[in-house]
Amino acid sequence: MDLWWIFWLAMVFLAPLILMEISSTFKFHFKIISYCILCLTLSALAAPVCLLKNGGRTVDNMRIIRAFVRTIKYFFGLRFKVRGLENFQFDGPCVIISNHQSILDMMGLMEILPDRCVQIAKRELLFAGSVGLITYLGGVIYINRKRTSDAKSIMAGVARAMIDDNVSSDTCMLQSLSRGSNGLSLF
Ligand SMILES: CCCCCCCCCCCCCCCC(=O)OC[C@@H](O)COP(=O)(O)O
């Protein structure tokens, strides 16, 4: 009986494990690619849940997206430590300005994301397959960074919506997700 297929199947699973032991560069890229594939897969799973629960594009879907994203840490054996959560208590509407460095930070963001928090992101995200779809369903507002006038008018619209929502400078919170700030830090 030809058992070569078992050998090749085993190699498909074993080769990455062996290469990860040998090369830290491979390990890094393998993990990043796995992370992206996981994001695409979870987005594809979360999209129908969002549509069934909330019917379309709404910030309420972010609760569902947040729950899906929070599972990613278990795939990679990660644990998050949040420092300064006492500075992150607020009653009314507010603006959160977060500093992030890569797509990996999204996991940390989702650990502390408050309910009904409308996010602003670069427009390119809309074209990221199922991730684009999930950001659309989650009510993300897109900014075209290549067209400053468009970006400005979108931001002006956001500002008007915030004024309508009674967000004043008193309720603005300047928080940072990066290390070393006085606000909130994620490790
Ligand atoms: C269920 C799995 C879902 C996975 C993805 C869900 C994502 C939902 C939240 C989206 C919020 C993302 C905020 C991104 C903000 C943004 O757009 O940052 C741009 C920066 O990077 C700078 O980019 P660059 O200059 O190209 O390095």
TrEMBL record:
<keyword id="KW-1133">Transmembrane helix</keyword>
<dbReference type="InterPro" id="IPR002123">
    <property type="entry name" value="Plipid/glycerol_acylTrfase"/>
</dbReference>
<keyword id="KW-0472">Membrane</keyword>
<dbReference type="GO" id="GO:0005783">
    <property type="term" value="C:endoplasmic reticulum"/>
</dbReference>
<dbReference type="GO" id="GO:0006654">
    <property type="term" value="P:phosphatidic acid biosynthetic process"/>
</dbReference>
<feature type="transmembrane region" description="Helical">
    <location>
        <begin position="7"/>
        <end position="26"/>
    </location>
</feature>
<dbReference type="Pfam" id="PF01553">
    <property type="entry name" value="Acyltransferase"/>
</dbReference>
<feature type="transmembrane region" description="Helical">
    <location>
        <begin position="125"/>
        <end position="143"/>
    </location>
</feature>
<comment type="pathway">
    <text>Phospholipid metabolism; CDP-diacylglycerol biosynthesis; CDP-diacylglycerol from sn-glycerol 3-phosphate: step 2/3.</text>
</comment>
<protein>
    <recommendedName>
        <fullName>1-acylglycerol-3-phosphate O-acyltransferase</fullName>
        <ecNumber>2.3.1.51</ecNumber>
    </recommendedName>
</protein>
<keyword id="KW-0012">Acyltransferase</keyword>
<feature type="domain" description="Phospholipid/glycerol acyltransferase">
    <location>
        <begin position="94"/>
        <end position="184"/>
    </location>
</feature>
<feature type="transmembrane region" description="Helical">
    <location>
        <begin position="32"/>
        <end position="52"/>
    </location>
</feature>
<keyword id="KW-0808">Transferase</keyword>
<keyword id="KW-0812">Transmembrane</keyword>
<dbReference type="GO" id="GO:0003841">
    <property type="term" value="F:1-acylglycerol-3-phosphate O-acyltransferase activity"/>
</dbReference>
